[in-house]
Every structure is written in structure tokens, then in C-alpha cells.
């Protein structure tokens, strides 16, 4: 597989481009139909029925999930067993909101004694857990020969037979339908022939789904502020999924000692101090030379893309292994986007107790990240729950800073004070005047200072202004972006 030389730059994949090209018209049509049905896609809903997509690997579950969502969320790849953690979201199917969940494939043949076999067991266990909770199970089969995995999985579903809908995928244009009828030997009352990729008979399937669900208890959620979006990033096996499960009080993310367990971005919600939070548990980011599979490459890029939409980043660092160059690369990507960062020293329960050990670990971080002395460091044990309160208190503090807007009058009053206390340097070759300042955005926080001859303003003075903004205006724990632009105001001393 060809990759760009630059380390894991975000990349527009062809599948995402194809989806984006059609998403606009589909979204408009969907929004119109939902409004007529009395549902609003902009609102949240409570007590939604749970629809679980299940089946053996590579039958098209993630493709169907993305089809219902009208955008690409779950990773789709020809490699069997791509999906591991359940991927879930609110989908609007035939005008009705449902809690839709994509699960890992049910594998029968496993290489006993290998780490991959352990992962397969965990995936199957998680899938069965979700099936038990489901209000409706959409069993996805594939046109072709019936496999032992199909047979065993159908038997696993017998106790839940009254909530199963069976659909045979990859039958576009009638392909394989005659052979697909063999699935009737399992006792299905009906089979639906669909194509998740091409959209064949998806409307009929959607109507069957909503016809089997009870929406009487569904109600609109209370209007509230948008959640604080927290992305958990770091190298593999640093405890990201353990932290996600700890904070959400769930087991949504599969946890194992096998590096690379998480592939999709797994979302989880919880409330802390009255504030709604959304966690984005991402795949571990390894060096490019270590990445051998297409699936992991996509997973890593999905993880990096969470930086475009998150509010706070938890950069997970294994206290046992310490820092690595890859941590610096992840940090740089977050910093470039102006995202607040918390260095999370996880597995702290394995280290020496006492303030001396903590101080030494913090010094090592400060040395490696010399330009980010403002970023908080929190020692945690996601496994034991240590440090969770401090971590979340810090996260909400950073969120309040990154969403803070300072009035222009207050900014320029502060600027005037800074210029008096520390006047700009002047010489025959370096002469400029700073006129005024304004804040141009929040999340990320950015400012523009207008000056005469901004190209002559030395970097040391720009650094001074950034430090004053950070320390005097309440942005002391987050990155601040500062741009200098030429003032439109005429000035008469140009040649002096």
C-alpha cells in the first residue's frame, strides 16, 4: 500500500470522497422526510430502541451501518474481522430514530493459543452481550454457500428468535438469489435480499425494521449545551480503552493486552459535574514503519481526524515505558490545530509512590515538550480509577479556556498596558507600531494584532505578546494562536 512520506498526515480516502459527493442531497431528502414524520435530526432522543447488526465477518455489516447513517463512520475494508468494538450512533431509519449498533463478526475458526484468537473470543463475547440487550437483531448473511460460522451463529440466536430479521447482502441485480434461498432451512419466516453497497431494497428493509419496533417510549431529550468532546490519543496499549470504560462506566471498548485492539473510533457519553461529555476512544498511533495493514492505516488516520472535531485531547503516556518520539508527533498534530492537551501519565499505580517520582516524571515531559510548559500533567491509573477527578476537573477547566471570548475593548486595554510596561524595540532597521488587537476565534483560540510593518516585529516580541495573552487573559493552560497583520491606518514616520 502506498503512503505519503509525511508521518500520518490526514488523508482523503476515495471512499470518503465518494460518500461526501452524495451526502448533501441525501441529507436534505432525509431531513425533509423526518420533519414530516415529527422527528428533528438536530435534537437528541431518549429511550430509543436498540437495533444490532450481527453476522459473521465480511458480510457487509459496516457498509450497511454507514448506509443507514448516510455517512462513513465504521471502517470498511475487505479484510475479515475489521470491526472489533461495537460502533454505535443514532440513525434515522424510515423517518424514525433508532440506536443503531455495528458489531464485530462472529468467527468460528480461530488459531488457538494466539493473540488473534484471544481477540476473536473477546469480539464474539462482546457481540453476544449486545445481542442480549437488542430490541431488534438484524442478522446479515451473504449470498453464496452457507458456512459453518453461519450455522453456529444462527443457533446462538435461537433464544432471541422473535427479534431477528434476516437479510442476505450482496445480491445486487439479483446476483446469488437462487442460492441464497437455502438460508430458509434455518426456519426464517422471510428473507430480504439487499445490497448495502449499492442500496438495493434498503427502503424495504428500513420499513421492516421500524415495523418491528416500539417507539411509544421515545421522547425528546432536554435542550442542553453541546457536550465536551474529549479525544483519547496515544500509542497502542497505553490504557486508552480502559480509561474510556472507566469514565463512561461501561465496557463499550474492548480491553486487552494485545496492542492495536481498537480500530474504529468508539464513542461514549457520561456526565461530570452537571456537564455532558463525549469520549472518543481512538486507535493506538504507531510509527508509520510499524504499520503493515490497510486496516490499521485507516484506523490511525481516523484517530488523527478526531483532532478536527474535539475540544480537549488526553494524550495517554504509559508511565512504565515513558515518552517516545511518537508522543511528540501526536502532540504536534494537536498543537497545530490549537487543541488543549492534557498529558495523562497512566498506569501510575505501577510506579514509586511519593511526590519525588511524580516530579521526576513531569520534568521528563517538560524536557521533551519544552515549548508546552503550559500543558497540564495528570497522573492516573485508569485500571484502579486513581486520578479521575483531577483529570476531569482539568479537562473542564481547559474547555472553559478554549471557549472563552474576550471583548475587544478589554483586549486593547490590556494591550495598551503591555506596550507601556514593555515597549516594542526600535532601531533604524526595525521600526513598527502596534495599533490594536482582536480575538478572531474560539476553539481554537486565535488573535490578530494589527501593526505597521508587521514583518519587522521580532519573534521575541511576538512570544512576549503570546505569553501576556495566555497569562493575563485566562488562557494559561491552552495553546494560543497569534497572527500579525498590516494595519490599514496610515502612518507618517515610515522613513524616519
Topology:
Elements lengths: L13 H24 L7 E2 L3 E5 L6 H9 L17 E7 L2 E7 L12 H19 L2 E7 L5 H10 L6 E6 L7 H4 L11 E2 L8 H10 L7 E2 L7 E7 L5 H9 L17 E7 L2 E7 L12 H12 L6 E7 L6 H12 L4 E6 L8 H14 L8 E3 L8 H15 L5 H14 L12 E8 L4 E6 L7 H14 L8 E6 L10
Task: Give a verbal description of the structure.
The chain has 496 residues and is of the alpha/beta class. 33% of the residues lie in helices and 19% in strands. The chain has 13 helices and 17 strands. It has helices at residues 14-37, 61-69, 115-133, 148-157, 177-180, 202-211, 240-248, 294-305, 325-336, 355-368, 388-402, 408-421, 459-472, and strands at residues 45-46, 50-54, 87-93, 96-102, 136-142, 164-169, 192-193, 219-220, 228-234, 266-272, 275-281, 312-318, 341-346, 377-379, 434-441, 446-451, 481-486. The chain has a six-stranded mixed sheet, with helices on both faces. A six-stranded mixed sheet has the order 10-11-9-12-13-14, sandwiched between helices. A hairpin with a 2-residue loop joins strand 3 and strand 4. The model is unreliable at 1-37, 74-84, 253-263, 286-297 and 490-496 (pLDDT under 50).
- What is the helix fraction of residues, given as a range? 25-40%
- Main beta sheet strand tally, sense and closure: 6 strands, mixed
Mean pLDDT: 78
The count of helical stretches stands at 13
Tell how many strands the DSSP assignment holds. 17
Task: Name the helix and strand elements from N-terminus to C-terminus, one letter apiece.
Answer: HEEHEEHEHEHEHEEHEEHEHEHEHHEEHE
Radius of gyration from the alpha-carbon trace, in angstroms = 27 Å
Overall body shape: elongated
The fraction of residues assigned to DSSP E strands is 15-25%
Question: What is the first-to-last residue Cα distance?
Answer: 60 Å
Provide the structure class: alpha/beta
Strands across the major sheet, in which order? 3-4-2-5-6-7
Low-confidence parts lasting 5 or more residues at pLDDT below 50?
Answer: 1-37, 74-84, 253-263, 286-297, 490-496
Amino acid at each position: 500500500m502506498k503512503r505519503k512520506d509525511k508521518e500520518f498526515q490526514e488523508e482523503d480516502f476515495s471512499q470518503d470522497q465518494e460518500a461526501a459527493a452524495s451526502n448533501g442531497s441525501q441529507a436534505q431528502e432525509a431531513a425533509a422526510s423526518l420533519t414530516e414524520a415529527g422527528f428533528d435530526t438536530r435534537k437528541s432522543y431518549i429511550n430509543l430502541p436498540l437495533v444490532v447488526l450481527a453476522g459473521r465477518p465480511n458480510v457487509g455489516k459496516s457498509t450497511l451501518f454507514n448506509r443507514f447513517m448516510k455517512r462513513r463512520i465504521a471502517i470498511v475494508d475487505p479484510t475479515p474481522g475489521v470491526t472489533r468494538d461495537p460502533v454505535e450512533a443514532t440513525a434515522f431509519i424510515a423517518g424514525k430514530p433508532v440506536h443503531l449498533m455495528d458489531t464485530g463478526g462472529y468467527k468460528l475458526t480461530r488459531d488457538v493459543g494466539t493473540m488473534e484468537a484471544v481477540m476473536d473470543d473477546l469480539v464474539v463475547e462482546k457481540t453476544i452481550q449486545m445481542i442480549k440487550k437488542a430490541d431488534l437483531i438484524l442478522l446479515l448473511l451473504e449470498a453464496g454457500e452457507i458456512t459453518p460460522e453461519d450455522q453456529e451463529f444462527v443457533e446462538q440466536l435461537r433464544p432471541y428468535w422473535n427479534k431477528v430479521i434476516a437479510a442476505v447482502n450482496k445480491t445486487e441485480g439479483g446476483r446469488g438469489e437462487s442460492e441464497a434461498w437455502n438460508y430458509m432451512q434455518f426456519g426464517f419466516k422471510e428473507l430480504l435480499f439487499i445490497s448495502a453497497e449499492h442500496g438495493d431494497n434498503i427502503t424495504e428493509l428500513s420499513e421492516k425494521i421500524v415495523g418491528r419496533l416500539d417507539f411509544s417510549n421515545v421522547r425528546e431529550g432536554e435542550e442542553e449545551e453541546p457536550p465536551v468532546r474529549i479525544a483519547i490519543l496515544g500509542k497502542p496499549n497505553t490504557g486508552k480503552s480502559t480509561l474510556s470504560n472507566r469514565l463512561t462506566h461501561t465496557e463499550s471498548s474492548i480491553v486487552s493486552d494485545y496492542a492495536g485492539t481498537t480500530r474504529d473510533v468508539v464513542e461514549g457519553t457520561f456526565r461530570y459535574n452537571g456537564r455532558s461529555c463525549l469520549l472518543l476512544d481512538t486507535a493506538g498511533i504507531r510509527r508509520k514503519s510499524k504499520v503493515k495493514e490497510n486496516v490499521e492505516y485507516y484506523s490511525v488516520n481516523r484517530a488523527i481526524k478526531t483532532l478536527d472535531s474535539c475540544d480537549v485531547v488526553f494524550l495517554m503516556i504509559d508511565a512504565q515505558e515513558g515518552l517516545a518520539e511518537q508522543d511528540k508527533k501526536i502532540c504536534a498534530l494537536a498543537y497545530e490545530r490549537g487543541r488543549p492537551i492534557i498529558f495523562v501519565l497512566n498506569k501510575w499505580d505501577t510506579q514509586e509512590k511519593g511526590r519525588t517520582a511524580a516530579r521526576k516524571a513531569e520534568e521528563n515531559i517538560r524536557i521533551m515538550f519544552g515549548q508546552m510548559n503550559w500543558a497540564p500533567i495528570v497522573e492516573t491509573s485508569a485500571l484502579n480509577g486513581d486520578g479521575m477527578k483531577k483529570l476531569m476537573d482539568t479537562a473542564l477547566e481547559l474547555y472553559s479556556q478554549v471557549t472563552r471570548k474576550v471583548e475587544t475593548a478589554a483586549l486593547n486595554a490590556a494591550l495598551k498596558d503591555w506596550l507601556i510596561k514593555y515597549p516594542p524595540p526600535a532601531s533604524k532597521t526595525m521600526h513598527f507600531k502596534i495599533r490594536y488587537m482582536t480575538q478572531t476565534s474560539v476553539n481554537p483560540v486565535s488573535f490578530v494584532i494589527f501593526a505597521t510593518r508587521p514583518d519587522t516585529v521580532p519573534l521575541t516580541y511576538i512570544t512576549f505578546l503570546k505569553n501576556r495573552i495566555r497569562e493575563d487573559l485566562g488562557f494559561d493552560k491552552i495553546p494560543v494562536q497569534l497572527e500579525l497583520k498590516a494595519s490599514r491606518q496610515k502612518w507618517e514616520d515610515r522613513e524616519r
